[in-house]
UniProtKB/TrEMBL annotation:
It comes from Polyplosphaeria fusca. This is Solute carrier family 40 member. Keywords: Ion transport, Membrane, Transmembrane, Transmembrane helix, Transport. Its main location: membrane. The keyword GTP-binding does not apply. Signal peptide: none annotated. Pfam families: FPN1. One of its GO terms (molecular function) is iron ion transmembrane transporter activity.
Length: 490
């Protein structure tokens, strides 16, 4: 078995490049029988339908559980803060482990268990919150139900990451390869479904919740439970239609050797480097040593930010005398901007290539925030004019953020060995959640609305560091996306 290699290809730079990419993948990773069973349109429908259902449950549940929890404990942000922090910590600690487990399992079996675990955790978490309404606040039963809810929320977060990793970082690659489809097009369509769910899910919940909180809870429980058999049927049909999904990726030679090294061999190394490598988890070592580490880490870095329409910025806007309706409109504009990017960004990637497009999209984010940061440094942080300038910059920034995320996703998909995709992407998700935790700590340190400017400064500085990391990757690859090349299957 020849050792795997990483080649460079200018993905998305034009028709000739796409044909070369397809040839590389066919030569290196094509199974002997790649004939799909069914039309390409039908297979893509299965993929898109499962992506939509998964995204809908993730966004709908994420918003719903926060609303239900806040209603259960009015007048305090403590429980919501603990809930958010625990979910992020669970993702940091367990995402990489979950990815490693998925890499060792059959694709269909792994995704089935992820779907079942995620949907059931949502339903049971909602049920535990419902029971809390009828439980005395100081009793033992109340504490148990609250603890159960927090644990289920952690399960929901980790399994939602696993769901995304399986579909967007593995299954879509295999489907695109077997159908001879442009993977970038599939990525864009799936991202549109994600953004639509992000916009429509909370809106639907708000409509039902306005009518009845109990009806909203029951709808969430019923929808998540009833969708499970439908989803299992969809992924079964998808797997049966695409032969590549039935093939277990083989472990690259150097990773196989690393895994088979005994503790005695490791202990024989006396250098500090060898000792450090023995202490660092294999998932972290693989992540840092990957040729696509820099773009992945650049993406993770920008999660350390308050420059989004998230909880911290919403709190700042409310303190600046914005009404809840105005905040909702701002949030909607932000999501619509991201949706617009699904039509604007792909032609850019087609014209100059994915890697170079990633650089310009990240530079766009830095440029779009530069003026608002300057204004917030010069004027009163609490003034409505400053707040409007800041959210305007954030909305414009979202266009570059979405495009950069898509570019990095494409680069990672092409440059990660098939047998380690889940572990790599889960470690990436853990880094993103770690930086989210650090972002939350910013507004704990700078808790007053007048101090929000300092959190903005830190976020802007991190964005610049992210750009520098990506520039190093751009220089290393000369604008060409790494392509994993190995005589193994998808």
């Amino acid at each position: 078995m020849s050792s795997p290699a990483v080649e460079l290809s200018n993905f998305g730079a034009g028709r000739d490049s796409r044909e070369e990419d397809a040839r590389l993948l066919v030569d290196n990773e094509e199974p002997s029988d790649n004939r799909v069973h069914g039309s390409a349109a039908k297979i893509k429908t299965y993929l898109y339908l499962e992506q939509f259902i998964s995204d809908w449950h993730m966004w709908y549940a994420d918003y719903s559980l926060v609303v239900f929890l806040a209603d259960q404990f009015p007048g305090t942000l403590v429980y919501v803060s603990v809930y958010t922090l625990l979910k992020a910590l669970a993702a940091v600690l367990l995402s990489s482990w979950a990815g490693t487990i998925m890499d060792r399992m059959d694709r269909l079996f792994a995704l089935k268990w992820v779907i079942i675990s995620h949907r059931c955790s949502i339903a049971f978490a909602c049920a535990s919150l419902y029971l809390l309404k009828f439980t005395p606040g100081s009793g033992f039963a109340f504490s148990i139900l609250l603890l159960l809810f927090m644990l289920l929320a952690c399960v929901e977060r980790v399994t939602s990451i696993a769901n995304v990793v399986a579909l967007e970082r593995d299954w879509v690659i295999v489907v695109a390869h077997n159908l001879k489809e442009d993977r970038q097009h599939l990525n864009v369509v799936m991202r549109r479904l994600d953004l639509f769910s992000k916009l429509a899910g909370p809106f639907v919940l708000s409509c039902i919740d306005t009518y009845s909180r109990t009806a909203a809870m029951l709808t969430l429980v019923a929808a998540t439970i009833l969708s499970v058999p439908i989803e299992l049927h969809i992924i079964q049909k998808l797997r049966d239609s695409v032969p590549g999904l039935k093939i277990a990726p083989t472990l690259p030679l150097e990773l196989e050797t690393e895994r088979e090294m005994s503790p005695n061999i490791l202990s024989a190394h006396t250098s500090n480097t060898a000792i450090a490598q023995a202490l660092v988890p294999a998932s972290i070592t693989q992540y840092i040593s990957s040729v696509v580490f820099l773009p992945s880490f650049s993406l993770a870095l920008i999660y350390l930010t308050v420059l989004s329409i998230g909880a911290q910025t919403i709190t700042y806007l409310v303190a600046s005398d914005f009404t809840s309706l105005q905040v909702s409109v701002i949030r909607g504009v932000s999501v619509i901007t991201e949706l617009a990017g699904t039509w604007i960004v792909p032609p850019l990637m087609e014209r100059i290539g994915v890697v170079r497009a990633g650089f310009w999209l990240l530079a766009w984010q830095v440029a779009s925030i530069s003026l608002p940061v300057t204004i917030i440094a010069m004027l009163d942080t609490r003034s409505k004019f400053v707040a409007i300038c800041l959210v305007s910059g954030i909305c414009v920034k979202r266009l570059g953020l979405w495009g950069f995320d898509l570019a990095v996703q494409y680069i990672v998909q092409g440059g990660t060995p098939p047998p380690t995709r889940a572990r790599f992407s889960s470690t990436e998700a853990a880094c993103q959640n770690l930086f989210e935790v650090l972002a939350s700590s910013l507004t704990i340190i700078f808790a007053k609305p007048d101090e929000f400017r300092y959190a903005v400064y830190v976020s802007y500085a991190v964005l610049v560091v992210s750009l520098l990391c990506y520039m190093r990757f751009l220089r290393q690859t000369k604008g060409h996306a790494p392509v994993y090349s190995s005589p193994t299957h998808f």
